[in-house]
Amino acid sequence: MRIVSVVRRELRIHDNPLWQGANEHEIVPLFVLDEFNQREHGDNLRTLFFFALNELRKQISSLGGHLYCIRTEQQEAFFATVKPDVVRFCEDHEPHSRERDSNLMRLLERIGIRYEVLRDSTLTPIPEQPFSTFTQFYKRHFLPTLQNNGLPHYPIPKHFKTPKIEFVETELPQVSSEAAKSWCIGEKEVLNRWRHYVRQHLANYEHTRNFLTETSSSRISPYIRCGLISLRQLCRDALDVSDAFVRELAWHDFYAHLLHHFPETTEQEWRLEWRRFRWRQDEKDFERWCQGQTGVPLVDAGMRQLQTEGWLPNRVRMVVASFLTKHLRIDWRWGERYFYCNLVDADLAQNVGNWQWVAGCGADAAPYFRIFNPILQAQKFDPQGEYIRKFVPELRKVPTEALFDLTKLRNCAPNYPTPMVDLEVARSEFQAEVKKHFGEKGLSQKGFD
Ligand SMILES: Cc1cc2nc3c(=O)[nH]c(=O)nc-3n(C[C@H](O)[C@H](O)[C@H](O)COP(=O)(O)OP(=O)(O)OC[C@H]3O[C@@H](n4cnc5c(N)ncnc54)[C@H](O)[C@@H]3O)c2cc1C
What we know:
CATH topology of the largest domain: DNA Cyclobutane Dipyrimidine Photolyase, subunit A, domain 3
CATH architecture of the largest domain: Orthogonal Bundle
Structural class: alpha/beta
Bound molecules: flavin-adenine dinucleotide
Number of strands: 5
Strand order of the largest sheet: 3-2-1-4-5
Order of helices and strands: EEHHEHEHEHHHHHHHHHHHHHHHH
Helix content: 40-55%
Number of helices: 20
Shape: globular
Radius of gyration: 23 Å
């Protein structure tokens, strides 16, 4: 049998459903360059993505095969040349990807080629009915499905029997962003780092995950995004070691299922009652936030890490997002887009879901009065100020207690910006604005607790 396996975000050899049957059948690995994604994705994600794709191409060659690269409009001619018995690809829940897949399926039906849709980007199948709270999703869908279905493991192919095909391929884009370079490692190195994390740190994950040192969390998200590591492998390794880690992987599935059922939430608030909320659209304030010049140390450290490394820890993502949407009351969509264009792990479902969670307008979101205090958060999760000092050089010589006291900080660091808002005043203003929008009664009736 001849199988075309279309690679999207599963850029690895190990534990990959696309290579099932490679030892017996002719597999034709194929990558289709999608113009929409080229425009949408930022250079940090594209740098890691094309690095990983090139590495995969080399690995497939070393196993005797060849990964073909073509453009969308060449698909029909390619299938006509290859004449496969079946085309297989993995499902994806982003609105654009679903449209692309419908087009592909229509094309294959028209030219009479069978297709197979596989699953790789979530641990569990998307439930038919959506869940509006994470806890229900976790208890009623995620855990029982894992228990009943288990986690299949797909063996590494011994070799690829790719037939020789005469076809003019397309060049892959050359993208190289400084921030993403340190993330560019191959599949073997990703697995080695993960195994090291499992041995040394995973058992403590529940206690360390919110701290801001290098080993507090796994830093695996960019590799999940590009499929350099399999979610099933992560989950299998974590199942007997850390329930907290498995729960975070369940959040990943939860947000994929939300985007699948509510594709309009890339643009609109999931909670209907928030759709008319008056977010501010202040470009100057937004720019100060983007540049890490807010005068609030933990916020600036996070935004500058995003600029230099294309990544930041989950706790800091929550703090900077809360500062933007609640202290500055700026539209969450602006923050979401900025993150999406700059994160090396940028993932539409995860990004939109988390932004709406922080802003308070998403499914199972943080309540409107939960406003992260960036000073207390820094004191708790960066008690020695190492994280702040690493990314905000103006504050390197400042005594630790001044990092947690904005009045003292003004005297110790004359080159550092003064805070753009008074945290307490901004907090009260946001709460007042929410109450004005919903009315006191509306808030309690809609169960914002
Ligand atoms: C405003 C905001 C935007 C975000 N945007 C993205 C994004 O574009 N892409 C992305 O992958 N993650 C996003 N996240 C989720 C989370 O911050 C990252 O997945 C996490 O920081 C990755 O670091 P890690 O691999 O060390 O995570 P670990 O703590 O080691 O967790 C392991 C894995 O669990 C999953 N996970 C952990 N936390 C979350 C979460 N809050 N939501 C969903 N899955 C989670 C991730 O797959 C993560 O890699 C965002 C969070 C916030 C608050």
